Amino acid sequence: MKDSPTTEHNDAGPSHGGVGTDLAAPEGAALDNRFANPGLPAHRYRTTDIDPAAAKRAERQVSTIFLLSAVGTLVFLVGYFALPIDDDKSLGRLQLSTMVLGLGLGFAIFLIGIGLVHWAKTLMPDHEQIELRHDIRGTDEERRDASNIILDGVEESGIMRRTVIRNSLIGAMAILPIPAVVLFRDLGPLPGTVLRESLWEEGVRLTRDPDGTPIRAADVTFGSVFHVIPDGLSESSHPIEEKAKAAVLLIRIQPEDVQPLEGDLAVRNDWDYDGIYAYSKICTHVGCPVALYEQQTHHLLCPCHQSTFDLTQHCKVIFGPAKRPLPQLPITVDGEGYLVASGPFPEPPGPSYWERGASA
Q1: Three-class DSSP category at 1
Q2: Per-residue pLDDT averaged across 25-36, rounded?
Q3: Phi then psi for 339, rounded to 5 degrees?
Q4: Helix axis angle, 178-185 to 91-122, nearest 10°
Q5: pLDDT of 24 over the 70 cut
Q6: Quick check: bond before 210 cis, omega within 30?
Q7: pLDDT score for 108
Q8: pLDDT tens track for 156-195
Q9: Who has the most CB within 10 Å: 43, 81, 115, 196?
Q10: Alpha-carbon span 347 to 356, nearest angstrom
Q11: For 287-321, how does the pLDDT look when each residue is reduced to its tens digit (9 = 90+)?
């Protein structure tokens, strides 16, 4: 009896290495053993690494850039003192002064950055290194190694032996803060009575910003908004500083829409004139101009950080980072029907400061 024929199966599976071969490591084998570590590529030396003359040339270039940065700082200082805006308050002088100061300071900072980048790319070591991760708190030996790495970095940077670069950088950095000192000086005096006082006082007319036209109460319609400055602002010795404290928004709404104040603040219920209200335009958060008015909700919004003040609640803060209502300016009309202040702000306008508690 013959044996029945058998069929041989030749499945070219993964073990035969044919098409579709699975390169996965055998079960239990380490995953990292599948591929050989190619290592770091061969280091490409720069011209300054092998040519001392090129290195010296790069050193002079970096030093020159730092010295040019110092020139930018000097341009700022010369422009500041040669183009004062206290004597000449024209728009042309302000634009010229701003341009010279901005270009000088920007040039100085930009060139210090360029010099540092050029120094790093041409003279500082650029060998590839691998640093393995470790626990946040290293051992004492690891901490010593870290300290040595910093010291090695200082040595490799060449800042100790490349005296020309070091001294030019120190010189550029030494005079760079001077413009900041000058700018801080221009911020004005420390908070005190200067911030508590403004041009608003009894009888001062409310005028349009910026032309200074007096405003009649009859010209203020319901829902309208006027940007207001005190009469005589242009004649002030410091109009910009005074405007920053005295800028006002004038808005008219139906008097019955406003919630009356109670207690000690009830006296302010008469600070409007027939629904015409005047509030400081300076946000009580960081001093941005509050210039957006939602007519339907009677909300005033600060565009900087979205502080929202409700006019129907005497500009109480209903949203945002501001903590105090906008100060209200009491107003009335004079014999000719023009709107005038009936007194100063009851508290300093603008953001809070460390001496504010002494006055409000």
Answers
A1: coil
A2: 60
A3: -75, 135
A4: 150
A5: no
A6: yes
A7: 94
A8: 888 888 888 888 988 888 888 888 877 777 766 565 677 7
A9: 115
A10: 9
A11: 999 989 999 999 999 999 999 999 999 999 999 99
Give the phi and the psi of residue 55 in degrees, each rounded to 5. Answer: -65, -40
What is the distance between the alpha carbons of residues 99 and 240, in angstroms, rounded to a whole number? 19
Give the pLDDT score at 134: 62
242 phi-psi bin (left φ>0, alpha ψ -120 to 50, beta other): alpha
Q: Is the pTM of this model over 0.90?
A: no
Report phi then psi at 205, rounded to 5: -75, 145
End-to-end CA distance of the chain: 120
Q: Dihedrals φ, ψ of 12, to 5°? A: -80, 75
Q: How confident is the model at residue 213 (pLDDT cuts 50, 70, 90)?
A: very high
- The C-alpha atoms of residue 335 and residue 214 are separated, in whole angstroms, by 13
The residue type of 113 is G
In this structure, what token pair is assigned to residue 49?
């690494």
3-state class (DSSP) for residue 271 = coil
Residue 14, pLDDT above cutoff 60: no
Each domain of the chain, given as residue ranges in start order, spans: 47-185, 193-358
Query: Which residue type sits at 57?
Result: R
Length of the chain: 360
Check residue 191 and report its DSSP letter. Answer: S
Q: Give me the residue label for tokens 């000088």.
A: 104
Handedness of CA 220, 223, 224, 225 (dihedral sign): positive
DSSP 103-161: HHHHHHHHHHHHHHHHHHHHTS-----------SS--HHHHHHHHHHHHHHHHHHTTTT
Q: What is the mean pLDDT of residues 98-111?
A: 94
What gap in Å lies between CA 205 and CA 220, rounded to an integer?
14
Q: Which amino acid is at 111?
A: L
Assign 127 a pLDDT band (cuts: 50, 70, 90). confident
- For domain 193-358, give the fold: Rieske Iron-sulfur Protein (2.102.10)
